[in-house]
Write a structure and sequence with these properties.
This protein has 14 helices and 11 strands. By secondary structure, it is of the alpha/beta class. Helix 1 runs antiparallel to helix 12 and helix 1 crosses helix 13. The radius of gyration is 19 Å and the shape is globular.
């Protein structure tokens, strides 16, 4: 499939969802909103998930009068930033943009009471698979090499992830468990710092979002091992799945916007409609396609269901991991 064809498919799919989201009745409580900039907390190191929403800023500002001020607040697998939003006023002027693991996985490992019930889902923006790669000097250069090595050498492979409780962490642990072996987790404050570490030769492998890992793969600085989905990803058609190498896992993460619980529905709907509209802009789709990041606009109710399903899927893996 050509780049242009993929973009057309993305545009059509996103436009269909956006059209339903744009059909929001005018409600007085939401009509005057927003009257000032909206703070968006991203609970990871800069250069990771924030890169998915910065391309929305121009359209949201010019077309919808919405100014996003994006701030990275790092710590505890995303729970530090998420708790900051949980405690914020429920007026729509503080939002959370995160991967679902910050609400469904990390709190359980951090002994935190945080949960999706503390928030009003606004909209899912992207559903992201993960890529495993190894350092250039490694002899592990394919999915089969990777599977064979970790099976023969339990606990010896050092791998980096965006942090304890992040979905990539759980994805790698699930992969090892499915093969009856173990790997050594080296957590970082975000995927950008994990990639810096592997580039410096400090760890053997990394697992993270395509936007962070694939540029180094394309430049020949990392070996691509595989993607964590059952089927190959259209934006990365040449990258095999781990399942093809004998590790049958299927791990993706929903990245979306959430507001503090109790935020007026009119405000949530207005935000959702504006974001959905901005997400169908060809310029936005082109930027995310360049990052091999699949745009996947889902309305609040569907996003909420995805959070519940993800939490249930990871529960068996979480139960075997030590609490922090």
């Amino acid at each position: 499939m050509t780049s242009i064809s993929r973009r057309r498919l993305l545009t059509a799919a996103t436009a269909a969802t956006a059209s339903s989201l744009l059909a929001v009745p005018a409600v007085a409580q939401g009509d005057a909103f927003p009257s000032r900039p909206i703070r968006v907390i991203v609970p990871y190191a800069a250069g990771g998930a924030d890169s998915y929403i910065r391309p929305l800023q121009d359209t949201l500002s010019k077309k919808h009068g919405i100014t996003l001020v994006i701030e990275s607040i790092v710590g505890a697998g995303g729970t530090v930033g998420a708790n900051r939003v949980k405690r914020a006023a429920a007026d729509g002027y503080t939002l959370l943009f995160c991967g679902s693991g910050a609400l469904t996985i990390a709190p359980k490992l951090q002994n935190d009471t945080l949960s999706p019930a503390d928030f009003e889902p606004v909209i899912n923006l992207a559903t992201i698979p993960y890529v495993i790669a190894t350092r250039k000097a490694s002899n592990i250069r394919s999915g089969r090499d990777f599977v064979d090595y970790i099976k023969r050498n339990p606990g010896k492979l050092d791998y980096g992830s965006p942090g304890i409780g992040a979905a990539p962490h759980l994805g790698m642990e699930a992969l090892a468990a499915s093969l009856g072996t173990s790997v050594n987790h080296v957590p970082f404050s975000g995927i950008a710092t994990a990639v810096q570490s592997i580039m410096g030769g400090h760890i053997e492998a990394v697992i993270g979002a395509p936007s962070a890992v694939m540029p180094q793969v394309r430049s020949g600085q990392l070996w691509p091992i595989g993607v964590t989905t059952r089927q190959r990803v259209p934006l990365m058609p040449d990258l095999p799945t781990l399942a093809e190498a004998g590790a049958p896992i299927d791990v993706t993460t929903h990245f979306g916007f959430l507001a503090p619980r109790g935020t007026p529905s009119a405000v949530v709907q207005k935000l959702a409609a504006a974001i959905a509209d901005a997400a169908r802009d060809p310029a936005f789709l082109s930027v995310l396609e360049g990052m091999q990041t699949p745009v996947d606009v889902k309305p609040a109710a569907e996003f909420a269901r995805a959070l519940v399903a993800e939490a249930a899927a990871f529960e068996p893996v979480i139960a075997k991991l030590p609490r922090q």
